[in-house]
Design brief:
Elements: E1 3-9, E2 13-20, H1 29-39, E3 43-46, E4 60-62, E5 65-68, E6 74-79, E7 86-90, E8 96-99, E9 101-105, E10 108-109, E11 123-131, E12 134-144, H2 146-155, E13 160-163, E14 172-174, E15 179-180, E16 189-195, E17 213-216, H3 217-220, E18 242-245, H4 247-260, E19 264-268, H5 273-278, E20 292-297, H6 302-312, E21 317-322, E22 327-331, E23 336-340
Parallel strand pairs: 21-23
Antiparallel strand pairs: 1-12, 2-16, 3-14, 3-16, 4-5, 4-8, 6-7, 6-8, 9-10, 9-13, 11-12, 11-13, 14-15, 17-18, 19-20, 20-22, 21-22
Length: 341
C-alpha cells in the first residue's frame, strides 16, 4: 500500500509526541519499527524539513523545549495534550509544535502555496492536520506537487493541513509493521501517535466527593467490608500498605455478587499514582481515589456485568467494558461515563 491516511478523534488519542532520532538511525523498515517500539506508539511518520546539519529549518518545540525559533510567525501543528491539538500560529505557549508548509487554514486553501523551490516539484508527500475536529494524517508515495496535495486534502474535507518534508523523507510505519520508507536517509525527528487502549481509555474525572475510607493492608487486610469482600482485595498490586476504598464502590460490587450469585474477582482496585502511571492509566484515574475496581464475574461477560452495573447507577458512575481483556471497570464518580477499552 503506497498511501496511509486516516483520522482519529482527539479524545481517542493517548499521546502525540515529537520523537528525536538521536542515534541517527537510517529510516529503514527495521529502524522505524525500533523507534515505534521505543515510544510505544501506534504509528510514526516523518516530520518537517531539516538542514544538512540535521537541525530543524522551521519552528520546532517539543516537551516545552524550543529547538528552533526563526524570526517570524507561522502556522504549525501545535498542542499541549492531544485534546487541544490543532493548527495554530507559532511561536506560542504550547508545549509542542512543528511548523512547515501550510496548505489549508480554517477550511480555506492557501493560494499561492509558499515554499522553497526544492519543495515545489512532484514528490511523495506527508501532511498532518485536522478534519472535522479530528487528528488527520496523510502519508503517500504517490507523487504530487504541494498544490495537488492541497487540493486533494481540501476535497477530502480537511479543515487544516500542514505539509511536512517530502521526497525521500516520506515514511510511515504502524505497530503491525505495515508501512513504507523513503530512501533510507537519516531523519532527525518524527511525529508519533498512539490511540488510547486498556486503562488509558478511562475518561479522566475529578476526585469523587463520596465517602472514602483508608485502611492498612497489614492491619486490616482481613477486615470484611461486606458479606463477600475484604480490604485486601482492594489493595494496590505494588504491595503498598495503604488502601483507599469507597463504601459506595463496595456496595455496587456486593450488589453484582448478589445479583449474579457468582464470585467477583477484583483485578485492580486502589492504585498509588506511581503504580497507576506504570499501568498506563489516565492521570486522574478513579483507581487513585479508591473509587474504582476492574472486576470479573464468574460465568458472565464484561458486557453483561456492565449492563447490570448501569442499572445500579443509571445517572452516575463510570462503566468501562474491556471485552478483549475480559473484565469490567466500575467506578462511583458523580458524573456518568461509559466507554469500551
Amino acid at each position: 500500500m503506497s498511501t496511509r491516511a486516516g483520522t482519529v478523534p482527539l479524545s481517542d488519542l493517548q499521546f502525540l509526541k515529537i520523537y528525536f532520532n538521536r542515534k541517527r538511525l537510517r529510516s529503514t523498515t527495521a529502524n522505524l519499527k525500533k523507534m515505534l517500539a521505543e515510544t510505544g506508539g501506534d504509528a510514526i511518520c516523518n516530520g518537517s524539513i531539516f538542514l544538512r546539519n540535521q537541525q530543524s529549518a522551521c519552528h520546532l518545540k517539543a516537551d516545552g523545549k524550543v529547538y528552533k525559533a526563526p524570526d517570524y510567525r507561522a502556522w504549525a501543528i501545535s498542542w499541549n495534550t492531544p485534546a487541544d491539538f490543532g493548527v495554530k500560529t507559532v511561536p506560542n505557549g504550547d508545549a509542542n509544535y512543528m511548523e512547515c508548509v501550510h496548505l489549508i487554514i480554517g477550511g480555506k486553501k492557501i493560494n499561492p502555496v509558499t515554499c522553497g523551490a526544492d519543495m515545489r516539484y512532484r514528490a511523495p508527500r506527508t501532511a498532518i492536520g485536522t478534519k472535522n475536529g479530528r487528528f488527520a494524517y496523510y502519508v503517500s508515495k504517490d507523487r504530487r506537487t504541494p498544490e495537488q496535495l492541497r487540493d486533494l486534502l481540501a476535497a477530502s474535507g480537511w479543515d487544516n493541513a500542514i505539509m511536512m518534508d517530502g521526497g525521500g523523507s516520506t515514511c510511515f510505519m504502524d505497530s503491525e509493521g505495515k508501512g513504507f520508507t523513503g530512501d533510507g536517509r537519516v531523519i532527525p525527528f518524527f511525529l508519533v501517535w498512539k490511540k488510547k487502549s486498556g486503562d488509558a481509555c478511562e475518561p479522566e474525572g475529578e476526585k469523587s466527593m463520596v465517602e472514602i475510607n483508608a485502611y492498612s493492608k497489614a492491619k486490616d487486610g482481613d477486615k470484611k467490608l461486606s458479606t463477600n469482600f475484604k480490604v485486601k482485595e482492594f489493595a494496590c498490586k505494588d504491595g503498598s500498605d495503604a488502601v483507599l476504598v469507597a463504601p459506595r464502590l463496595v456496595m455496587v460490587l456486593q450488589s453484582l455478587r448478589s445479583h449474579f450469585c457468582a464470585a467477583v474477582t477484583i483485578n485492580s482496585a486502589y492504585r498509588t499514582p506511581q503504580y497507576n502511571a506504570k499501568e498506563g492509566g489516565v492521570t486522574d484515574s478513579q483507581h487513585c481515589y479508591g473509587t474504582a475496581a476492574d472486576s470479573v464475574v464468574r460465568g458472565k461477560t464484561p458486557a453483561q456485568v456492565a449492563a447490570y452495573a448501569r442499572q445500579l447507577m443509571p445517572d452516575w458512575g463510570g462503566v468501562g467494558v474491556y471485552a478483549k481483556k475480559g473484565f469490567t471497570h466500575i467506578d462511583v464518580r458523580e458524573a456518568k461515563a461509559d466507554w469500551n477499552g
